[in-house]
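Quick bug: YlbD family protein output formatted oddly.
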Amino acid sequence: MKAKKNHPSVQQFKEFVKEHPKLVQEVRKGNKEWQEVFEDWYLLGENDVIWKQYKNIAEQNDDEKKSDFMTQMLSAVKKMDANTVNHHISNVSSTISTIQGLFNQFGLTKGSSQTSSSKSQQPFSFRKD
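Here's what came back:
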């Protein structure tokens, strides 16, 4: 006997329920029915706010850690002094300009490396008359 193949949305719903084990408890308690949960999931999507309460505690902690990281990053950006950042950027820019000047002075640019490699391949220059 062949196994019955479910519709792709049913498979996705099953995966969703595995990620939200508290939904199973709600249905077993009689607070909700599977049809109702499926319709809500289908209409609202799996990223809706109402599903947070049914998520696994470990996954909720992961979400909180992500939001903590973003909060820390935003507070670090707020604490930055614009003048200090501008000073560091100008220092880096002048350093890059100096290095580029040294490369140009010693002939280490892309164009000169190509001409030197072509000269080494053909030591004599022949032209047609």
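Actually, after a second look the formatting is fine. The chain has a mean pLDDT of 78. Closing.
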